[in-house]
Amino acid sequence: MRPLIGITGNQLLEAVPAFSGISVAYTPIGFVKGVQAAGGNPLIIPIGAPETAADYVAKIDGLLLTGGQDVSPNFYGEEPSLHIGATFPLRDDFEMALVAEALKQKKPILAVCRGLQILNVQMGGSLYQDLPHEYPEMRIQHQQKTDFKYATHSVIVMEGSHLHGLVGEKLSVNSFHHQALKIVAKGLQPVGYSPDGLVEAVEATDPEQSIVAIQWHPETMIPEAKNMRLFFEDLVARSAR
């Protein structure tokens, strides 16, 4: 049996000519192809009512939290800064419920970019709402101007972590984010850092929870970057156990 991997969906909120003004539920194709190539069956989970999250999580073997809008600072007790981007409260509410259920049901998680951030917030952490205005130590480009399929900066990986076993002590990643982890939730352990000190990857401190959460976008770097396929293969393997 191929593990069933739930992939969080997003929604087009603005009319676009390609869909004749019709709102569309979607997820980037890289996530779908990444799961399929790794031997899993992807299931896109559309944004819905939080009370439906338990049913979705019960049916899947693993959860993939995808990128997208900024996470509302209301969830970590802050007012929105002048520099925060668009938020999507319905998506926040639903994905917070999905994370809570995945933790409760102990389903493996791979969290990417916004996924890392919503995971951290749901577990009690906080975010820098806008790095250029809130993180004075920033000295590298975190919103790359280069095509997303190319890596632009390095990440140092902590020895002894699950991530270290996957990719080694250092890897090159792409980067497209203006928010990042500020206070890391108590149930999470930083295992990867950018050269300017930002947390780029976390794992669960509880050995009964199977979590890999990363700030970059592996789905846009495959098939060119073979090491980025490892994240999907690892999620499928963890979900098959």
UniProtKB/TrEMBL annotation:
Gene Ontology process terms (BP): polyamine catabolic process
Pfam families, sorted: Peptidase_C26 (PF07722)
Keywords: Hydrolase
GO MF annotations, alphabetized: gamma-glutamyl-gamma-aminobutyrate hydrolase activity
Domain of life: Bacteria
Presence of the UniProt keyword Calcium in the record: no
GO CC terms of this entry: cytosol
InterPro entries linked: Class_I_gatase-like, Peptidase_C26, PuuD-like
Protein name: Gamma-glutamyl-gamma-aminobutyrate hydrolase family protein
Organism of provenance: Trichococcus shcherbakoviae subsp. psychrophilus
